[in-house]
Amino acid sequence: MTDYGVDTDRHALVAMWSSGLGNIAHTAADLPDTVSTDQALLLTHVLNGLSKAAWRTYTHPASPLDDAELDLDGEGWERTDERAALADVVAAIRAPNLPEDGMLLESYSPVIESAHRVGRELHAISDAGLTEQLVVEVEAELAAIEAAERGDLTGRARQAVRLTRADASPLQVAAADALLQQDPLGSAALFSEVDATAASVAAAHWLQVAAEIAAEMAETAPTEVVIEADDLEPLAVDTPTLVLERLAAGETPRQVVTDLVGDAMAVADGRIPDVEGLMVLLVQAGEDLSGDGEDFEATVPDRITPLDPVRPAHDLLEDLLDGIRGCWLLYRAYEDDAAPPDTPAPQRADRDRAFFDRVRKEAAARQDRLL
Protein backbone atom coordinates (compact mmCIF):
# COMPACT_ATOMS: atom_id res chain seq x y z
CA MET A 1 0.00 0.00 0.00
CA THR A 2 1.10 3.55 -0.68
CA ASP A 3 1.66 5.98 2.18
CA TYR A 4 1.05 9.65 1.52
CA GLY A 5 2.66 12.51 3.37
CA VAL A 6 3.21 16.26 3.24
CA ASP A 7 6.58 17.73 2.32
CA THR A 8 6.27 21.02 4.17
CA ASP A 9 9.55 22.36 2.74
CA ARG A 10 8.33 22.06 -0.85
CA HIS A 11 4.61 22.37 -0.07
CA ALA A 12 3.85 19.13 -1.89
CA LEU A 13 2.21 15.77 -1.38
CA VAL A 14 4.56 12.79 -1.58
CA ALA A 15 3.72 9.14 -2.13
CA MET A 16 5.91 6.35 -0.76
CA TRP A 17 5.79 2.57 -1.04
CA SER A 18 8.03 -0.36 -0.22
CA SER A 19 10.10 -2.05 -2.90
CA GLY A 20 10.89 -5.04 -0.71
CA LEU A 21 14.38 -3.71 -0.05
CA GLY A 22 13.59 -0.11 0.84
CA ASN A 23 11.04 2.60 0.18
CA ILE A 24 10.48 4.52 -3.05
CA ALA A 25 9.02 8.02 -2.96
CA HIS A 26 7.85 10.52 -5.55
CA THR A 27 5.90 13.75 -5.70
CA ALA A 28 2.21 13.00 -5.98
CA ALA A 29 1.11 16.62 -6.34
CA ASP A 30 2.40 20.16 -5.96
CA LEU A 31 0.08 22.02 -3.62
CA PRO A 32 -1.35 25.47 -4.42
CA ASP A 33 -0.28 28.23 -2.06
CA THR A 34 -3.87 28.51 -0.85
CA VAL A 35 -3.81 24.99 0.63
CA SER A 36 -3.00 24.97 4.34
CA THR A 37 -0.91 22.31 6.05
CA ASP A 38 -4.01 20.99 7.81
CA GLN A 39 -5.85 20.67 4.50
CA ALA A 40 -2.86 18.85 3.04
CA LEU A 41 -2.75 16.48 5.99
CA LEU A 42 -6.44 15.71 5.57
CA LEU A 43 -5.75 14.90 1.93
CA THR A 44 -3.01 12.45 2.87
CA HIS A 45 -5.34 10.84 5.41
CA VAL A 46 -8.09 10.14 2.88
CA LEU A 47 -5.60 9.10 0.19
CA ASN A 48 -4.10 6.58 2.60
CA GLY A 49 -7.59 5.24 3.27
CA LEU A 50 -8.26 4.87 -0.44
CA SER A 51 -4.98 3.08 -1.05
CA LYS A 52 -5.66 0.68 1.83
CA ALA A 53 -9.17 -0.12 0.60
CA ALA A 54 -8.03 -0.55 -3.00
CA TRP A 55 -5.10 -2.85 -2.17
CA ARG A 56 -7.39 -4.97 -0.01
CA THR A 57 -9.07 -6.09 -3.24
CA TYR A 58 -5.67 -7.52 -4.19
CA THR A 59 -4.89 -9.17 -0.85
CA HIS A 60 -8.44 -10.51 -0.44
CA PRO A 61 -9.50 -11.74 -3.92
CA ALA A 62 -12.57 -13.89 -4.46
CA SER A 63 -10.55 -16.58 -6.27
CA PRO A 64 -9.54 -18.77 -3.29
CA LEU A 65 -13.07 -18.97 -1.85
CA ASP A 66 -15.19 -22.08 -2.28
CA ASP A 67 -18.67 -22.15 -3.82
CA ALA A 68 -20.43 -21.62 -0.49
CA GLU A 69 -18.35 -18.54 0.25
CA LEU A 70 -19.09 -17.19 -3.23
CA ASP A 71 -22.81 -17.24 -2.46
CA LEU A 72 -24.51 -13.89 -3.02
CA ASP A 73 -24.95 -13.44 0.73
CA GLY A 74 -21.40 -14.43 1.59
CA GLU A 75 -17.96 -12.92 1.74
CA GLY A 76 -17.32 -13.79 -1.90
CA TRP A 77 -19.99 -11.34 -3.05
CA GLU A 78 -18.38 -8.57 -1.04
CA ARG A 79 -14.93 -9.30 -2.46
CA THR A 80 -16.22 -9.47 -6.03
CA ASP A 81 -18.19 -6.26 -5.58
CA GLU A 82 -15.23 -4.41 -4.08
CA ARG A 83 -12.96 -5.43 -6.95
CA ALA A 84 -15.51 -4.20 -9.48
CA ALA A 85 -15.76 -0.91 -7.60
CA LEU A 86 -12.21 0.04 -8.61
CA ALA A 87 -13.59 1.02 -12.01
CA ASP A 88 -15.70 3.76 -10.37
CA VAL A 89 -13.01 5.29 -8.16
CA VAL A 90 -11.98 8.15 -10.45
CA ALA A 91 -15.60 9.11 -11.13
CA ALA A 92 -16.25 9.28 -7.38
CA ILE A 93 -13.22 11.53 -6.90
CA ARG A 94 -14.35 13.89 -9.65
CA ALA A 95 -17.99 14.00 -8.54
CA PRO A 96 -18.20 13.04 -4.86
CA ASN A 97 -21.34 12.80 -2.78
CA LEU A 98 -21.74 16.12 -0.96
CA PRO A 99 -23.88 17.06 2.05
CA GLU A 100 -27.44 18.13 1.24
CA ASP A 101 -29.78 19.57 3.85
CA GLY A 102 -27.46 18.36 6.58
CA MET A 103 -27.46 14.80 5.22
CA LEU A 104 -24.68 12.88 3.48
CA LEU A 105 -25.14 9.79 1.33
CA GLU A 106 -22.38 7.28 2.10
CA SER A 107 -21.55 4.16 0.12
CA TYR A 108 -21.50 0.69 1.67
CA SER A 109 -18.39 -0.01 -0.40
CA PRO A 110 -15.15 0.89 1.43
CA VAL A 111 -13.45 1.48 -1.94
CA ILE A 112 -16.12 3.84 -3.26
CA GLU A 113 -16.63 5.67 0.03
CA SER A 114 -12.87 6.18 0.32
CA ALA A 115 -12.87 7.71 -3.16
CA HIS A 116 -15.77 10.01 -2.24
CA ARG A 117 -13.81 11.20 0.80
CA VAL A 118 -10.87 12.12 -1.41
CA GLY A 119 -13.28 13.90 -3.73
CA ARG A 120 -14.88 15.86 -0.89
CA GLU A 121 -11.52 17.11 0.35
CA LEU A 122 -10.61 18.20 -3.17
CA HIS A 123 -14.02 19.85 -3.57
CA ALA A 124 -13.37 21.86 -0.42
CA ILE A 125 -10.00 23.00 -1.78
CA SER A 126 -11.56 23.71 -5.19
CA ASP A 127 -8.44 23.66 -7.34
CA ALA A 128 -8.84 21.94 -10.71
CA GLY A 129 -5.10 21.54 -11.19
CA LEU A 130 -4.67 19.73 -7.88
CA THR A 131 -7.62 17.48 -8.65
CA GLU A 132 -6.09 16.46 -11.98
CA GLN A 133 -2.72 15.74 -10.38
CA LEU A 134 -4.30 13.45 -7.81
CA VAL A 135 -6.51 11.73 -10.38
CA VAL A 136 -3.33 10.82 -12.26
CA GLU A 137 -1.80 9.63 -8.99
CA VAL A 138 -4.79 7.45 -8.11
CA GLU A 139 -4.91 6.02 -11.63
CA ALA A 140 -1.26 5.00 -11.25
CA GLU A 141 -2.08 3.29 -7.95
CA LEU A 142 -4.98 1.39 -9.49
CA ALA A 143 -2.82 0.37 -12.45
CA ALA A 144 -0.25 -1.03 -10.01
CA ILE A 145 -2.95 -3.16 -8.37
CA GLU A 146 -4.06 -4.50 -11.75
CA ALA A 147 -0.45 -5.31 -12.67
CA ALA A 148 0.05 -7.15 -9.38
CA GLU A 149 -3.10 -9.18 -10.03
CA ARG A 150 -1.59 -10.27 -13.35
CA GLY A 151 1.56 -11.39 -11.54
CA ASP A 152 3.63 -8.45 -12.78
CA LEU A 153 5.40 -7.03 -9.73
CA THR A 154 7.56 -4.50 -11.52
CA GLY A 155 7.48 -0.74 -11.07
CA ARG A 156 4.96 0.54 -8.57
CA ALA A 157 3.34 -2.90 -8.34
CA ARG A 158 6.45 -4.16 -6.57
CA GLN A 159 4.96 -2.95 -3.30
CA ALA A 160 2.86 -6.13 -3.41
CA VAL A 161 5.90 -8.12 -2.20
CA ARG A 162 5.34 -6.65 1.27
CA LEU A 163 1.70 -7.74 1.39
CA THR A 164 0.08 -11.08 2.13
CA ARG A 165 -2.35 -12.27 -0.52
CA ALA A 166 -4.93 -14.99 0.03
CA ASP A 167 -4.21 -16.53 -3.38
CA ALA A 168 -1.11 -17.31 -5.43
CA SER A 169 -0.51 -16.14 -8.99
CA PRO A 170 0.81 -18.96 -11.22
CA LEU A 171 3.26 -16.48 -12.76
CA GLN A 172 4.60 -15.59 -9.34
CA VAL A 173 4.83 -19.25 -8.31
CA ALA A 174 6.88 -19.91 -11.44
CA ALA A 175 9.12 -16.93 -10.66
CA ALA A 176 9.68 -18.21 -7.12
CA ASP A 177 10.38 -21.70 -8.42
CA ALA A 178 13.05 -20.27 -10.73
CA LEU A 179 14.67 -18.43 -7.80
CA LEU A 180 14.74 -21.65 -5.78
CA GLN A 181 16.41 -23.39 -8.70
CA GLN A 182 19.20 -20.84 -8.31
CA ASP A 183 19.37 -21.21 -4.52
CA PRO A 184 17.28 -23.96 -2.87
CA LEU A 185 17.92 -22.44 0.57
CA GLY A 186 16.32 -19.18 -0.53
CA SER A 187 17.75 -15.79 -1.44
CA ALA A 188 16.92 -12.17 -0.68
CA ALA A 189 15.22 -11.97 -4.08
CA LEU A 190 12.60 -14.42 -2.85
CA PHE A 191 11.43 -11.75 -0.40
CA SER A 192 12.02 -8.62 -2.49
CA GLU A 193 10.91 -9.66 -5.98
CA VAL A 194 8.15 -12.24 -5.52
CA ASP A 195 4.76 -12.34 -3.82
CA ALA A 196 5.22 -14.12 -0.48
CA THR A 197 2.20 -16.41 -0.81
CA ALA A 198 3.31 -17.58 -4.24
CA ALA A 199 6.87 -17.99 -2.96
CA SER A 200 5.52 -20.13 -0.11
CA VAL A 201 3.73 -22.38 -2.60
CA ALA A 202 6.99 -22.96 -4.44
CA ALA A 203 8.91 -23.39 -1.18
CA ALA A 204 6.41 -26.00 0.06
CA HIS A 205 7.02 -27.99 -3.12
CA TRP A 206 10.78 -27.78 -2.66
CA LEU A 207 10.48 -28.71 1.02
CA GLN A 208 8.58 -31.86 0.13
CA VAL A 209 11.24 -32.88 -2.39
CA ALA A 210 14.11 -32.12 0.00
CA ALA A 211 12.39 -34.00 2.83
CA GLU A 212 11.91 -37.10 0.70
CA ILE A 213 15.57 -37.12 -0.30
CA ALA A 214 16.76 -36.54 3.28
CA ALA A 215 14.35 -39.18 4.59
CA GLU A 216 15.81 -41.72 2.20
CA MET A 217 19.30 -41.04 3.55
CA ALA A 218 18.17 -41.02 7.20
CA GLU A 219 15.85 -44.01 6.79
CA THR A 220 12.93 -42.16 8.31
CA ALA A 221 9.61 -40.71 7.18
CA PRO A 222 9.66 -37.38 5.30
CA THR A 223 7.32 -35.94 7.92
CA GLU A 224 9.95 -36.66 10.60
CA VAL A 225 12.90 -35.03 8.83
CA VAL A 226 12.60 -31.49 10.22
CA ILE A 227 11.88 -32.84 13.71
CA GLU A 228 15.10 -34.86 13.64
CA ALA A 229 17.08 -32.01 12.09
CA ASP A 230 16.08 -29.77 14.99
CA ASP A 231 18.44 -31.85 17.15
CA LEU A 232 21.31 -30.66 14.96
CA GLU A 233 20.42 -26.97 14.85
CA PRO A 234 17.48 -24.95 16.20
CA LEU A 235 14.87 -24.78 13.45
CA ALA A 236 11.26 -23.83 12.87
CA VAL A 237 9.71 -27.26 13.34
CA ASP A 238 5.95 -27.05 13.79
CA THR A 239 4.92 -25.30 10.59
CA PRO A 240 7.22 -27.15 8.15
CA THR A 241 6.17 -30.46 9.73
CA LEU A 242 2.49 -29.53 9.46
CA VAL A 243 2.98 -28.66 5.79
CA LEU A 244 4.81 -31.95 5.14
CA GLU A 245 2.03 -33.91 6.84
CA ARG A 246 -0.65 -32.26 4.74
CA LEU A 247 1.33 -32.74 1.54
CA ALA A 248 1.85 -36.40 2.42
CA ALA A 249 -1.92 -36.69 2.88
CA GLY A 250 -2.43 -35.65 -0.74
CA GLU A 251 -3.01 -31.90 -0.64
CA THR A 252 -1.21 -29.71 -3.16
CA PRO A 253 1.27 -27.01 -2.12
CA ARG A 254 -1.19 -24.35 -3.24
CA GLN A 255 -4.02 -25.86 -1.19
CA VAL A 256 -1.91 -26.09 1.95
CA VAL A 257 -0.39 -22.63 1.66
CA THR A 258 -3.54 -20.71 0.76
CA ASP A 259 -5.44 -22.47 3.54
CA LEU A 260 -2.83 -21.63 6.19
CA VAL A 261 -2.43 -18.07 4.96
CA GLY A 262 -6.17 -17.55 4.63
CA ASP A 263 -6.77 -18.73 8.19
CA ALA A 264 -4.11 -16.37 9.52
CA MET A 265 -5.61 -13.48 7.56
CA ALA A 266 -8.99 -14.27 9.10
CA VAL A 267 -7.41 -14.13 12.56
CA ALA A 268 -5.88 -10.76 11.66
CA ASP A 269 -9.41 -9.57 10.82
CA GLY A 270 -10.57 -10.67 14.28
CA ARG A 271 -12.34 -13.84 13.15
CA ILE A 272 -12.00 -17.53 14.08
CA PRO A 273 -11.31 -19.26 10.75
CA ASP A 274 -12.50 -22.75 11.71
CA VAL A 275 -14.99 -22.67 14.57
CA GLU A 276 -16.02 -26.31 14.14
CA GLY A 277 -12.41 -27.45 14.13
CA LEU A 278 -11.70 -25.45 17.27
CA MET A 279 -14.71 -26.99 19.02
CA VAL A 280 -13.48 -30.48 18.11
CA LEU A 281 -10.07 -29.68 19.61
CA LEU A 282 -11.66 -28.39 22.81
CA VAL A 283 -13.92 -31.43 23.18
CA GLN A 284 -11.01 -33.76 22.48
CA ALA A 285 -8.88 -31.94 25.02
CA GLY A 286 -11.58 -32.42 27.63
CA GLU A 287 -11.81 -36.13 26.87
CA ASP A 288 -8.03 -36.50 27.08
CA LEU A 289 -7.76 -35.08 30.59
CA SER A 290 -6.20 -37.69 32.84
CA GLY A 291 -8.21 -36.67 35.89
CA ASP A 292 -5.13 -36.22 38.08
CA GLY A 293 -5.32 -32.46 38.19
CA GLU A 294 -3.97 -31.90 34.68
CA ASP A 295 -4.54 -28.35 33.49
CA PHE A 296 -7.18 -28.19 30.74
CA GLU A 297 -5.45 -25.22 29.12
CA ALA A 298 -2.26 -27.25 28.77
CA THR A 299 -4.04 -29.84 26.62
CA VAL A 300 -5.24 -27.48 23.88
CA PRO A 301 -3.26 -25.51 21.29
CA ASP A 302 -2.28 -22.06 22.48
CA ARG A 303 -2.73 -20.51 19.03
CA ILE A 304 -5.55 -20.45 16.49
CA THR A 305 -3.02 -20.20 13.65
CA PRO A 306 0.61 -21.33 13.49
CA LEU A 307 1.48 -18.20 11.50
CA ASP A 308 2.01 -14.60 12.53
CA PRO A 309 -1.31 -12.91 11.64
CA VAL A 310 0.49 -9.62 11.00
CA ARG A 311 2.66 -11.11 8.23
CA PRO A 312 1.45 -14.66 7.63
CA ALA A 313 2.82 -15.32 4.14
CA HIS A 314 6.28 -14.02 4.98
CA ASP A 315 6.29 -15.94 8.26
CA LEU A 316 5.32 -19.12 6.41
CA LEU A 317 7.99 -18.59 3.76
CA GLU A 318 10.68 -18.15 6.40
CA ASP A 319 9.60 -21.35 8.15
CA LEU A 320 9.50 -23.37 4.93
CA LEU A 321 13.00 -22.24 3.97
CA ASP A 322 14.14 -23.17 7.46
CA GLY A 323 12.62 -26.59 6.86
CA ILE A 324 14.56 -27.00 3.61
CA ARG A 325 17.72 -26.12 5.50
CA GLY A 326 16.82 -28.78 8.06
CA CYS A 327 16.54 -31.38 5.29
CA TRP A 328 20.02 -30.48 4.11
CA LEU A 329 21.44 -30.62 7.65
CA LEU A 330 19.98 -34.06 8.30
CA TYR A 331 21.15 -35.40 4.94
CA ARG A 332 24.64 -34.05 5.59
CA ALA A 333 24.76 -35.52 9.11
CA TYR A 334 23.87 -39.03 7.95
CA GLU A 335 26.18 -38.78 4.98
CA ASP A 336 29.02 -37.67 7.25
CA ASP A 337 28.38 -40.68 9.48
CA ALA A 338 28.69 -42.96 6.47
CA ALA A 339 31.86 -41.31 5.15
CA PRO A 340 35.40 -42.10 6.34
CA PRO A 341 36.43 -39.85 9.26
CA ASP A 342 39.31 -38.33 7.30
CA THR A 343 37.17 -37.21 4.33
CA PRO A 344 38.68 -33.95 2.94
CA ALA A 345 36.58 -30.79 3.10
CA PRO A 346 36.38 -30.44 -0.71
CA GLN A 347 34.70 -33.83 -0.92
CA ARG A 348 32.14 -32.76 1.67
CA ALA A 349 31.39 -29.68 -0.44
CA ASP A 350 30.93 -31.96 -3.44
CA ARG A 351 28.41 -34.02 -1.47
CA ASP A 352 26.51 -30.87 -0.54
CA ARG A 353 26.36 -29.88 -4.19
CA ALA A 354 25.18 -33.36 -5.09
CA PHE A 355 22.31 -33.05 -2.58
CA PHE A 356 21.15 -29.71 -3.94
CA ASP A 357 21.57 -30.86 -7.55
CA ARG A 358 19.33 -33.82 -6.80
CA VAL A 359 16.78 -31.57 -5.11
CA ARG A 360 16.80 -29.30 -8.17
CA LYS A 361 16.35 -32.25 -10.50
CA GLU A 362 13.51 -33.78 -8.49
CA ALA A 363 11.74 -30.44 -8.03
CA ALA A 364 11.84 -29.84 -11.78
CA ALA A 365 10.67 -33.37 -12.54
CA ARG A 366 7.63 -33.02 -10.27
CA GLN A 367 6.34 -29.69 -11.54
CA ASP A 368 2.92 -31.27 -11.98
CA ARG A 369 2.32 -31.21 -8.23
CA LEU A 370 3.56 -27.65 -7.73
CA LEU A 371 0.05 -26.15 -7.87
Task: Provide a quick synopsis of the model.
The protein has 14 helices and three strands.
What is the number of E strands?
3
Q: Output the number of helix runs.
A: 14
Unreliable stretches covering 5 or more consecutive residues: none
Could you say which structural class the secondary elements and strand pairing correspond to? mainly alpha
Major sheet, described briefly? 3 strands, antiparallel
Strand order of the largest sheet: 1-2-3
* Strand proportion: 5-15%
Helix content: 55-70%
The value of Rg in angstroms is 25 Å
Please tell me the total number of domains: 2
Q: Average the pLDDT over all residues and give the rounded result.
A: 91
Shape: elongated
Distance between the termini: 27 Å
Question: From N to C, what is the helix and strand string?
Answer: EEEHHHHHHHHHHHHHH
Structure explained in plain terms:
By secondary structure, this protein is mostly helical. The protein folds into 2 domains: 3-162, no CATH class; 170-369, no CATH class. It is 57% helix and 5% strand. The protein has a 3-stranded antiparallel β-sheet.
